[in-house]
Amino acid sequence: MSINEAMTIFAKTVVKEGCIPFELSVKTPNRETIDAMLEAERLSKDPETKRYSSFMEAFNEVISD
User: Fold this and answer.
1) Which pTM does this prediction carry?
2) How confident is the model at residue 35 (pLDDT cuts 50, 70, 90)?
3) What is the 3-class SS of the chain, one letter each residue?
4) Does the CA dihedral 9-10-15-16 come out positive or negative?
5) In a 10 Å sphere around its CB, with 0-12 CB exposed, 13-18 middle and 19+ buried, how is residue 17 labelled?
6) Could you give the count of Cα atoms lying within 13 Å of 19 in the half-sphere of its Cβ?
7) Torsion, CA 10, CA 16, CA 17, CA 18, rounded to 10
8) Contact in structure between 30 and 22 (CB atoms under 8 Å)
């Protein structure tokens, strides 16, 4: 099935049913993901956290250890 055929079927189904033909949902992150997001936020506000001016600067430090 081509993308054009798929889009045509999708559009016809939307018109026929009057809604998107699949469920849309937002999944709640698990505890590990929430903890990582909170840690990233905390580190971004901590003036003692080491900063890098580029990805390569951080990468080079990691591979040098």
Assistant:
1) 0.46
2) very high
3) CCHHHHHHHHHHHHHHHCCCCCCCCCCCCCHHHHHHHHHHHHHHHCCCCCCCCCHHHHHHHHHHC
4) positive
5) exposed
6) 4
7) 90
8) no
d(CA 2, CA 27): 29
Q: Are 29 and 37 in contact (CB under 8 A)?
A: yes
Q: What angle do CA 34, 30, 50 make, to 5 degrees?
A: 30
Residue type at 59 in one-letter notation: F
